[in-house]
Design a protein that fits this description.
Layout: H1 3-11, H2 18-30, H3 35-48, H4 52-63, E1 78-83, H5 91-101, E2 105-110, H6 120-124, H7 136-146, E3 148-152, H8 159-169, H9 177-190, E4 195-202, H10 211-227, E5 231-238, E6 246-247, H11 249-260, H12 267-282, H13 289-301, H14 304-315, H15 321-324, E7 334-339, E8 344-349, H16 351-363, E9 377-380, E10 387-388, E11 393-399, H17 402-413, E12 416-419, E13 429-432
Parallel strand pairs: 1-2, 1-4, 2-3, 4-5
Antiparallel strand pairs: 5-13, 6-9, 7-11, 8-10, 8-12, 9-11
Helix pairs in contact: 1-3, 2-4, 4-9, 4-10, 5-11, 5-12, 5-14, 9-10, 12-13, 16-17
Bound molecules: uracil.
């Protein structure tokens, strides 16, 4: 087989066979197909698209480029969740303990943050002592004992995707539905869960800017998941403003604790109830989404969901007392308020830019090598549609020093659009598929 022939075939809008796709991915992973040819192929796929059979073959080829986790030593139904990424997205910290408290097994591999988006692993590592580097044996053992474990993604999971994603990043080929679907699903399928629920974000803070684009992606993700034999559901949610209020690692853990202890009931809780009810119904643990939501709410009000988070933290070497006393989490030395400079209604909070403010404070990474400061970030005090008065605080900046705080306040001010007239609150959940 020759890579040039495959590139020309895709360039001319023809389908690649399973054999061709397997050969191409094996060759690219091994280094026998160079980056320049794979770049041309990615661009041809972006421009010409792929049918479901090709996307499934590409997904499976990438999945089998590395280790595939066999979760069969874990008893019960294993559920996993994936988010296409956002700002202030601490969903896993809330959802996973809630669902585990309802009896599903959560054996989750998560990633680190880059750019304006955060990562679950960084957030969990803001808990003193918490280890996300578990051996496979410890991981299985913890899930069997406690119903839940979250660890960092191992280097061996879908290595073809790691190489391909880095190439797409510098060749303008990230926004291709077949490439995104095969990238996400190869990693999700390699993680071995029976039930996969996908949170597809749309808006300013995500790479699908409209609900229509997000729906095309969500549709394709669920079709490929089901063709691969998994129970799969997706929801499309708004990322035109950050999720919840906190953006920054320890600050997000604190917010997750507030939601799990019933003290906060906004969009974050709503999202976890919808994702969790999809998981429980797909797993057959509840007959309807309403019944599942009630199970999840009971887990919160009874304190079982919060206790499950504390149990996981303890089992992974962390100081579980911070779950009941979040004031013990790392906190920033400089905490300054951002006063509103007019009366009005919040029309917009630019999610991506809020994520960048947190990153520049040290809460995120501009490059993979950057070291994170767990204490810093931003806590918003309002959502879009809220009325605000001149002088009222819009947000608190948590900074390592005064010079970072000055810079962050200036940048954060530009993230808010204040309107004089009424503002309709945007829909948060666009669709459940
Ligand atoms: N997230 C992924 O893992 N892959 C993509 O291609 C896009 C987002």
């Amino acid at each position: 087989m020759r890579m040039t022939d495959l590139i020309e075939k895709k360039r001319d809008g023809l389908s690649l066979s399973q054999e061709e796709i397997n050969w191409m991915i094996a060759g690219y992973t091994a280094g026998s197909i160079p980056d320049y040819q794979m770049s041309a192929m990615c661009m041809a796929i972006l421009l010409r698209g792929m049918g479901d059979r090709e996307v499934l073959d590409l997904t499976m080829a990438m999945l089998h480029s590395g280790e595939v986790l066999d979760l069969s030593p874990i008893a019960g139904i294993k559920a996993d969740k994936h988010s296409t990424g956002g700002v202030g997205d601490k969903t896993s910290l809330v959802l996973c303990p809630m669902v585990a408290a309802c009896g599903l097994k959560i054996a989750k591999m998560s990633g680190r943050g880059l750019g304006h988006t955060g990562g679950t692993i960084d957030k969990l590592e803001s808990i003193p002592g918490f280890s996300t580097a578990l051996t496979e044996e410890q991981f299985f053992d913890n899930v069997n004992r406690h119903g839940i474990a979250i660890m960092g993604q191992t280097a061996d999971l879908a290595p073809a995707d790691r190489k391909l994603y880095a190439l797409r990043d510098v060749t303008g080929t990230v926004p291709s539905i077949p490439l995104i679907v095969s990238s996400i699903m190869s990693k999700k399928l390699a993680s071995g869960a029976d039930v996969i629920v996908l949170d597809v974000k749309c808006g300013d803070g995500s790479f699908m800017k409209t609900p229509e684009q997000a729906e095309v992606l969500a549709d394709s993700l669920t079709r490929i998941g089901r063709l691969a034999g998994k129970k799969c559901a997706a929801i499309i949610t708004d990322m035109d403003q950050p999720l919840g209020f906190a953006v920054g690692n320890a600050l997000e853990v604190r917010e997750a604790v507030q939601v799990l202890s019933g003290q906060e009931q906004g969009d974050l809780l709503k999202l976890c109830l919808v994702l969790g009810s999809c998981m429980l119904t797909e797993a057959g643990s509840a007959a309807s989404r309403e019944e599942a939501e009630q199970m999840l709410l009971d887990a919160v009000t009874s304190g079982r969901a919060l206790a499950k988070l504390a149990e996981m933290v303890s089992a992974q070497g962390g100081d579980a007392s911070v779950i009941y006393h979040p004031e013990l989490l790392p906190s920033a030395p400089v905490q300054w308020e951002l006063p509103c400079d007019q009366n009005g209604v919040i029309a917009r909070i630019h999610a991506e830019n809020v994520g960048l403010v947190s990153m520049k404070l040290g809460g995120g990474r501009a490059t993979k090598e950057d070291v994170i400061d767990p204490a810093v970030g931003v806590v918003l005090h309002h959502k879009v549609g809220d009325s605000v008065a001149k002088g009222e605080s819009l947000a608190t900046v948590h900074a390592p020093d005064e010079s970072h705080a000055h810079e962050a306040l200036e940048a954060l001010r530009a993230c808010f659009d204040i309107s004089e007239g009424p503002v309709t609150r945007p829909p948060f959940i666009h669709k459940i598929l």
